[in-house]
Amino acid sequence: MSIEVQELSKIYGQQKAVNEISFSLAKGEIVGFLGPNGAGKSTTMKMLTTFIPPSIGTAKVAGYDVVEQAMEVRKRIGYLPEHNPLYPDMYVKEYLHFVAKVQSLGKNAKNRVAEMIETTGLTKEASKKIGQLSKGYRQRVGLAQAMIHDPEVLVLDEPTSGLDPNQLADIRQLILTLGAEKTVLLSTHIMQEVEAMCDRVLIINLGNIVANEGTSQLRQRGKGAYVHHFSFDSAVSYEKLKSHFTAIKIDQLGKNSFRAIQDNSQDIRAAIFDFAVANDTRLLELRREESKLEEVFRDLTKNPSPVNSQE
To answer: Which domains, and CATH codes, for the chain?
Structure first.
């Protein structure tokens, strides 16, 4: 496994920011790491990248312990923190050469800097000072520094923050390409990114892992695998509709519009049509869709997380 976490905790005074969590990531996986603000995401990432030590438990990256073998971990991991720490007075190319030197790339430094500039779309910005760049381009510089030493594992905390739609598509594709050969742990609040890039999802809430499964399996949790939206061209009794579909949750969205939520074993479209015929009304809309990850996420994290300045 590229990342192995066993009963990992971080305690600040009386508060457990991370509470005995365990998970693992294999080579070639892109795993989304989700949770509300203050849930423990950034704290966990800082422990994995050796920025802060765990209070209890163990974590290994590429087989090396993050406490006992921290330098070996740092050689094999690339980290883009949530607040991208850059030197605004340095030029882009100058900064990347500085990072290459820190990573002891030696004679390979020039080629890696040129490769990262091209890979992250910084060619036109390479001679500018970092402080002159937009937030999106500064984010690209952060990605370039995280990847310059060709690490086995990438830990990316909000990597697409501040990117415009065109930049977003480019960086998503880059992460997907990297994920074919590397292990990527990706934190984001954008569920579309999870759908587009991630093989699996970890959700943390109040310092605890509350989900660890594939995206398709995760959709089947919470409110159900499918949601039906439907509306009629005349008034229908909500109570009558609920009594007709006794085993299914029905929500009234508008005067004549409704939502039905049921598990993966049912397809109730024919039953909705039959109900309309039996009640002398017509269907104006009948739409079936998979439950969205946003709905499952809200269901799993509905308990509010306390504000945690360390996260």
So the answer is: 3-90+133-219 (3.40.50.300), 226-290 (3.30.70.1560)
